[in-house]
C-alpha cells in the first residue's frame, strides 16, 4: 500500500496546482466572494443572496451556476425554492484568509489579530 496517496499533496510538483489556479480564478470576482461570505452561515435562496450581495437575481444565478460547476456550492430543493449552500468549508476558509491578507496590506494591526475584550478578561483571571 502506498501511504502517499492518503496525504494532501502540497509540493511544487502537485498534480493539483493547475486546479488550484482555477479555484483562485473562480474566486477572482467580488460578487462570488460576497456570495461565499453570505453562505458561510447556511443555505440561502437566490433572491435572498441577491439582496445581500446587491446584485440582480439573474446575475447571482449566473455566478451560482459557475460556482456549482466548480463544486463550490450545491443545491437543495425545498418545494419550488432552490437553496444554495457551500459544498465544504474550504471556499469559506480561502475567502476568510484572503480578507485577512487584505487587512495586512493596510498596515497596522489587522482586526483579526486583536483579542476581543471579553477573551482578554478571561485569560487574565
UniProtKB/TrEMBL annotation:
**InterPro entries attached to this UniProt entry:** ArsR-like_HTH, HTH_ArsR_DNA-bd_dom, Metal_resp_trans_reg, WH-like_DNA-bd_sf, WH_DNA-bd_sf
Gene3D superfamilies noted in UniProt: Winged helix-like DNA-binding domain superfamily/Winged helix DNA-binding domain
SMART domains, per this entry? HTH_ARSR
Top-level division of the source organism's lineage: Bacteria
Keyword Transcription regulation tagged: yes
Keyword terms, alphabetized: DNA-binding, Transcription, Transcription regulation
For whether the record's keyword set contains DNA-binding, the answer is: yes
- An example of a Pfam family matching this protein is HTH_5
Concerning SUPFAM superfamilies, the annotation shows: Winged helix' DNA-binding domain
Where does the HTH arsR-type domain start and stop, copy by copy? Answer: 12-106
User: What NCBIfam families does the entry give?
Assistant: HTH_metalloreg
> What protein is this chain from?
ArsR/SmtB family transcription factor
Q: Origin organism of this chain?
A: Arthrobacter sedimenti
Amino acid at each position: 500500500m502506498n501511504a502517499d496517496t492518503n496525504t494532501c499533496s502540497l509540493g511544487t510538483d502537485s498534480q493539483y496546482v493547475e486546479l488550484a489556479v482555477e479555484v483562485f480564478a473562480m474566486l477572482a470576482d467580488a460578487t462570488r466572494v460576497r456570495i461565499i461570505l453570505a453562505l458561510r452561515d447556511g443555505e440561502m435562496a437566490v433572491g435572498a443572496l441577491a439582496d445581500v450581495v446587491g446584485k440582480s437575481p439573474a446575475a447571482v444565478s449566473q455566478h451560482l451556476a459557475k460556482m456549482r460547476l466548480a463544486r463550490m456550492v450545491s443545491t437543495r430543493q425545498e418545494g419550488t425554492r432552490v437553496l444554495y449552500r457551500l459544498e465544504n468549508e474550504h471556499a469559506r476558509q480561502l475567502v476568510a484568509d484572503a480578507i485577512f491578507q487584505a487587512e495586512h496590506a493596510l498596515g497596522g494591526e489587522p482586526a483579526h489579530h486583536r483579542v476581543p475584550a471579553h477573551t482578554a478578561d478571561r485569560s487574565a483571571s
